[in-house]
Amino acid sequence: MDIRFVALKNKTGVPKSVTQSREKLKLPQMNKIYSIVLTTMLLFLMAPKVWAADFTVSISSTDGCSGYIQPLKSGASIQFQINVKNIWTGNCNVGINKNNMGIPAAWVAIDNNNQTITPQQSVNFLITLTIPANTSEGEYSMPLSFNAYDSSNYNHSFTYTTQVVTVDNSVPQLPTFSAIPSSGKIYVSGWSSYDAMSNTYTTKKPSSGISGIKSYTVTLKNPDNSVKETQTINATSNNYYTFQNLTGNVNYKVSVTATDIAGNTNAKEIVVATAPAAPTMSSSVQGFCNITLNWTASSGATSYKLYDATPSTPVLITTTTNPSYVVNGLTSATVYKFYVVAYNSSGLGSDAGNTLSVSTLTVPVPTISGSQSICSSGTMLTVTNVPSGCSLEWVPGPGLSLYSSSGSSATFKATDNVPSWIKATINSGCGVASYTYAVDAGKPKPGAISIDFDAPPSRFTASIDGMISATSYNWYLDGVLIRNTTSTLQVFNRQLDNCGHVYYVDVEMVNGCGTSELRHAEVSEDPCYYYMVYPNPAVSEISITQSPEITSLSLAATSPKPRNIKSIKIIDNNGITYMNKVYGKEIPNASLNISALKIGTYQIIINEGKGQESHSFIKN
């Protein structure tokens, strides 16, 4: 703070205003006024000179707190600087007048007092304030006055804000605080204290502390009084601290020491027992509907609370004195989460133990063993993997009836000859698993035969949809058993030189219940064509001649008979006749002019008298 002190400068002579007034007043009145003015001027001339407007003063350590010096206790000392700047036009020798400092004058030492300060120059006066031993506590005023002699030995004296020296010998109030323990931590918070003598200073200078207290020291001791950890925290900072990485079920000592601005201390210590160590869940035994949980016993624990942490908000399952528990009423094939909290006899709970994630057992899918042929006489099936404590249910499909069941086996009888199934379900009481076993009820009943002609080339393939219970298939061609096989398809050779030949294909299935009826199919070679129609497509004319292959076959016959054409008819796909030519004389070959026909597809019918042959051709 830079403060300029302003005072009136003394002048000599009678003011002009007084002289003028005397001329206008009567003599008695004039003499009375003159006497008053003269007396006033004499008193003013006799008063000391004050030149405060010529200097500025600042004390950085107290200007912000109304001149209050940091409180000290007896025997303590402090140093601070007083800065003085000369804003007069001449040099002055400036010094601090200790005689005006009151009681604290004897406690003050001034380094390099009486310094010459040139115009616009600033100098510092180092003040050492030492409180004598046994000084009574209280607030002591310390006025500041300065002498400033110029070259003519005139004193430009000035003063500054009176400083306040606080002597604080008393300890702060006993601190109060709370300490909340857990397994491995102690949370200390809410500490508070008060010091009456230092309180004014912290009020004036809030950054220095609160309620006269500068800082708090939080200390943690082991049971043997050895210091485990200590922390000093400013009173203006947070009033909480957590001691971590502690051992469970240990009687620690926690103390909070309050230190006031003068350095006086007062401490409070309490014994704080940490909670039992957090239990560790180490093993589990899973069932379909329950889980057996085990955890490590915590020293000092008298009970344990087991929680289900599967939902977002954990649910208390039970309170037990044993380090194990069977959790019932669960669902199979489901993941659950659990943790345990240990409690001592005072009801102090540990930190939550580790969260164990564990799943109940999954009900196995039934494995069914037995024949897939269910006969009318009865067939037994068995589920080979029914777990202990689980039940088994059987359901027959169409064409079947459940004859009897015992344990993991059941006997079924066929009531029809159809493809069917049998369903087995394992029930754990909290979950199920099923499997459907494909079977055939009764004797096999084959479906339709499919024939792929000329596949492979020069042969044809017959196939049938198999039945799961079939052990073999009997394939017949033209009434002759060709093969007994487990294959659902059979390849046959074709009679390529036997046009129009019809193949008779039959098959029967065999399973454990017997042999099926024959399933029949027919396929034939292309019919025999005696004539060739060419060119095809044609534009204006087509020719009809006997096929060379057929001619050679006829000539090779024992009694060859030539084939002759009696008439030729041309029709479209709608059966409309466009040409019908009858020959008066039978001829073996013929030619026809078709230029008048429209573009399209037509049928040409060749009549030999005893029979006729039809060919398709395209007119371009």
Automatic annotation (TrEMBL):
InterPro entries: FN3_dom, FN3_sf, Ig-like_fold
Origin: domain of life: Bacteria
Domain Fibronectin type-III residue range list: 275-365
Gene3D superfamilies cross-referenced by the UniProt entry: 2.60.40.680, Immunoglobulins
UniProt name for this protein: Uncharacterized protein with a C-terminal OMP domain
Native organism: Aquipluma nitroreducens
